């Protein structure tokens, strides 16, 4: 049985005992990919940030909170995976300091210092196993295809799934999505607006076999 790992949801980067830096990802696209991969006969590991969804039946689910925890969970399992799909909206920054207690307010402005998190996908691309298929997502508001193509090459990916998050009827927080899937060999597939499970099935069909590029 082929092994597939998919990441999903946001990460949370703590800055004190009760506050964190995060994003609006609901995890629905990643969970749909996990369900579609299970349906397609893969042994599926889902590495999930904090979301309210139930993992699909028959899928191993590992829950994490921060980008650092997600990186550790994924990198420990990556070498044995045939396919890795990074659908998580990993925070690019985290507070430079985390306070153990709850921060008290002071008069005036607060300036919060953020530092970079590790780019998990780039690390996976740099350590890619022979034959392993690596898939990224590109959430963009501008120049969708140019930015996605650039990420595909820069992170040494096999496929990138580009979604336009500047629209309210798809992507972030929506039950539906419309994506363009670009391959490192110049392949291109356009999947029009459909429920995320349907989009996930189409992505899996491309990853699993010879489908004609448009
Ligand atoms: N990603 C990751 N680790 C990070 C940030 C992003 O693995 N620290 C992955 C995401 O899961 C996604 C891909 O990288 O598959 C692209 O994420 P995106 O936020 O679109 O792009 P970035 O590489 O963060 O670039 P930018 O924010 O400049 O657009």
Number of helices: 5
Indicate the CATH class.
Alpha Beta
User: How far apart lie the N and C ends?
Assistant: 30 Å
CATH architecture annotation: 3-Layer(aba) Sandwich
Helix fraction?
25-40%
Number of domains: 1
Q: Which sequence of strands runs across the widest sheet?
A: 5-4-1-6-9-10-11-12
**Uncertain runs:** none
Helix and strand element order: EEEHEEHEEEHEHEEEH
DSSP strand count: 12
Mean pLDDT: 95
Could you say what the CATH topology is called?
Rossmann fold
How would you explain this protein's 3D organization?
This protein has 214 residues and is α/β, with parallel strands linked by helices. It has a single domain (3-91, 114-208), classed as Rossmann fold (3-Layer(aba) Sandwich). The protein has five helices and twelve strands. The protein has helices at 28-39, 67-77, 120-126, 144-154, 196-208; strands at 3-8, 13-14, 20-21, 43-48, 60-63, 83-86, 93-95, 114-116, 133-140, 159-164, 176-183, 188-195. The strands form three sheets. The chain has an eight-stranded mixed beta sheet, with helices on both faces. Strands 2-3 form a two-stranded antiparallel sheet. Strands 7-8 form a two-stranded antiparallel ribbon. The longest helix is centred in the last third of the chain and has 13 residues, at 196-208. The structure holds cytidine-5'-triphosphate. Cytidine-5'-triphosphate binds at residues 67, 86, 88, 90, 92, 117-121, 136-139, 151.
């Amino acid at each position: 049985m082929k092994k597939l790992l998919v990441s999903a949801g946001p990460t949370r980067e703590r800055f004190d005992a009760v506050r964190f830096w995060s994003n609006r990802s609901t995890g629905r696209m990643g969970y749909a990919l996990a369900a579609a991969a299970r349906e397609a006969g893969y042994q599926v590991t889902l590495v999930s940030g904090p979301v309210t969804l139930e993992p699909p039946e028959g899928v191993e689910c590992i829950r994490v909170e921060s980008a650092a925890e997600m990186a550790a969970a994924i990198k420990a399992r990556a070498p044995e995976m045939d396919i890795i799909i990074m659908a998580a909206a990993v925070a690019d920054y985290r507070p430079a300091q985390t306070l153990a207690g709850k921060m008290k307010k002071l008069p005036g402005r607060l300036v919060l210092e953020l530092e970079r998190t590790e780019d998990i996908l780039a690390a996976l691309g740099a350590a890619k196993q022979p034959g392993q298929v690596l898939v990224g997502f590109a959430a963009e508001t501008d120049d969708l295809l140019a930015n996605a193509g650039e990420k595909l090459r820069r992170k040494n990916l096999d496929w990138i799934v580009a979604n336009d998050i500047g629209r309210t009827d798809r992507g972030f927080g929506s039950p539906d999505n419309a994506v363009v899937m670009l391959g490192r060999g110049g392949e291109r597939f356009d999947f029009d607006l459909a429920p995320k499970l349907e989009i996930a099935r189409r992505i899996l069909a491309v990853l699993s076999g010879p489908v004609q590029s448009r």
